[in-house]
Amino acid sequence: MSIEISAAVFKFDVLRYLCYNIKLSNYERTYFGALYMIYLDNAATAKPCAEAVKAAASCAFGNPSSLHGLGIEAERVISEAKKTILKKLGKEGEIYFTSGATESNNLAVFGTSNALKRRGNRIVTTAIEHPSVAEPMKRLEEQGFEVVRLSPCKYEDFEQALIDAVDEDTILLSFMAVNNETGFITDSKRVYNEVKKKFPRCVVHVDGVQGFCKVPLHADIISLSAHKIHGLKGVGALYKTKETRLLPIVYGGGQQGGLRSGTEPVELIAAFSAAVKAYPDLSEKFALLKEKLVEALAKLPQVTINSRHAVDNIVNFSVAGVRSEIMLHFLEEREIYVSSGSACSRGKVSPVTAALGISAKDADCAVRVSFCGENTVQDVEKLVEGIKDGIKRFRR
Ligand code: PMP
Prior knowledge:
The protein is an alpha/beta fold. Helix content is 42%, strand content 14%. Helix 4 packs antiparallel against helix 10, helix 5 runs parallel beside helix 10 and helix 8 runs parallel beside helix 9.
């Protein structure tokens, strides 16, 4: 409570305006930026929390493979981190540390298909996956796998469509629990339970990056990333059940049971674990922030909300007639940081936004706002003020 009050006191407009033209280093931005900037791009990356930074700094530097005391201490840190992540997931099973969710997703997709290719070559996935799943799927197609991609916009009940798409020849079902662009939710519990009931041998992989600590995650394999939950960049995890068989994609010294060779980044892992422990239940806060934002945007006739069936911490909307980058940089001048709401590259429509039912015109003007626990209702008010001013300035 007192932290919130002091943050609000410091978030004076005066301070923010004074800071407009001061060039700050990245370090200053990260640690003092909260005093004046409004950071609403937490789905891209979330500021490392104090607990994570402290854990990384105070972590034993030993190599977990070393036989001396420092190595044993490093090994203990890793095994504690595994327990923490498993507890947060509410699961028993195995945790492997990776360089991030990009690697976890690659390991899940290639590792499963390589392990199961003798049994079949059919894979079911969605048309809204992050490139770290979508690109490996393309490589598998080149190798002769049959990849079926489902688009949410084509189905009333997308979860049922995924369940129905799996057949006895399907070796892998891979989908994201929460989409990074609009926050679209796919209920992994329902899909996992139904698919396993019918086809227990089909491996279910969930990209849990945007869902971790926000929605329940259920699958045989789950990909996680530390920097989306206030850990440090460069570390992720792959959860799997004991029974799920995967082949490695990285070979070397045989660390982590040979599934992921390479010296474990103990400091990053300690920070990941500390961030997981420190992550509070933010569901009420996110619901309030979303409510305030959507309520205010609904009053602007130029704005369309693109997020449907979505988590509360991600709101994607389009401002007709103002292209994403224009609005993004206009807001940036006011120290308000958002993301362009579509992963499209110039002139090309993002297949992800199209599969989510967003028109090319709206995708071109889409803005993604993503909250963290430090954001306040005042932040939302400032954002809405900025959007209104942007509309006045740029819309013809
Ligand atoms: N999956 C999703 C849904 C993501 O949002 C991201 C990060 N943008 C990733 C995977 C990749 O995570 P990392 O940055 O840890 O490689």
